[in-house]
Amino acid sequence: MNESDEVDILLVEDNQDDLEMALRALSKANLADRIQIARDGVEAVDYMFCHGAYAKRNPACAPKLVLLDLKLPKMDGMEVLKLIKGDARTR
Q1: Which residues pair with 10 in a beta bridge?
Q2: End-to-end CA, the chain
Q3: Are 31 and 9 spatial neighbours (Cβ–Cβ below 8 Å)?
Q4: Which parts of 29-71 fold into alpha helices (H)?
Q5: What is the domain partition of the chain in residue ranges?
Q6: Which among 67, 68, 50 has a CA at the least distance from the CA of 59?
Q7: Confidence bin at 33 (pLDDT 50/70/90)
Q8: Domain 3-85 listed as CATH 3.40.50.2300
Q9: Apex 65 CA angle, 64 and 71, nearest 5
Q10: Please, which residues bridge with residue 37 across strands?
Q11: What would the mean pLDDT of 64-70 be, rounded to a whole number?
């Protein structure tokens, strides 16, 4: 496993102000070392399941935590959550 592939937190947020606030809070709590940001539901699903731009990502390096906005463009957070919970690899 390549350390640069490891992501502890997947932060899915489309609002820049909310994103910055979450990043500040995570940084203040010393949890901001390895964060991947997704700006919409499709990007989050692509990241989680190694599709599209993330096809070369190591699927064994799944995030330990997903912070998921529910109101997202392209695919809402509830749809993303349903896909994550419906797959044995990410359940």
Answers
A1: 36, 66
A2: 21
A3: yes
A4: 41-48
A5: 3-85
A6: 50
A7: confident
A8: yes
A9: 150
A10: 11
A11: 94
